[in-house]
């Protein structure tokens, strides 16, 4: 399995960026693990949307473990997986369907096969 990361500080706001990211082995082995192509965009929310969200979160009557970790974001991050190329199957038969996992803070997402 390989991994790649993107520093959001380098992404220009209100502009779509297409990134081709080579997957690297987190254990340091030099091998071709394929690459993924993503489209990223950061779009700021309006001030009114941010205020409405803050009011909604503060007026919630019950606090779950999920909502206690909630944060008020002033921007939306759009991530589109365009394609994955040369992704290696990770089972011994070589027939597994690779997928991509995304992580942003504590939130995790998984692509379809």
TrEMBL record:
Record's Gene3D superfamilies? C2 domain (2.60.40.150)
Pfam name, any one = C2
Note the InterPro entries from the entry.
C2_dom, C2_domain_sf
Q: Which UniProt keywords apply?
A: Calcium, Metal-binding
- Write down any Gene Ontology CC term: membrane
On the tree of life, the source organism's domain of life is Eukaryota
Record's keyword annotation contains Kinase: no
**MF terms per GO, please?**
calcium ion binding
Q: Which residues form the C2 domain?
A: 57-113
Q: What is this protein called?
A: C2 domain-containing protein
Species, as recorded: Clytia hemisphaerica
């Amino acid at each position: 399995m390989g991994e790649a990361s993107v520093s959001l500080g380098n992404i220009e706001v209100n502009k779509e960026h297409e990134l081709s990211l080579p997957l690297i082995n987190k254990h340091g082995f030099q091998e071709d693990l394929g690459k993924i192509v993503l489209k990223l965009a950061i779009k700021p929310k309006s001030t009114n949307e941010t205020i409405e969200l803050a009011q909604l979160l503060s007026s919630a009557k019950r606090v779950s473990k999920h909502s206690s970790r909630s944060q008020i974001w002033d921007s939306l991050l759009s991530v589109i997986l365009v394609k994955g190329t040369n992704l290696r199957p990770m089972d011994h038969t070589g027939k597994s369907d690779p997928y991509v996992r995304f992580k942003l803070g504590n939130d995790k997402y998984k692509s379809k096969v």
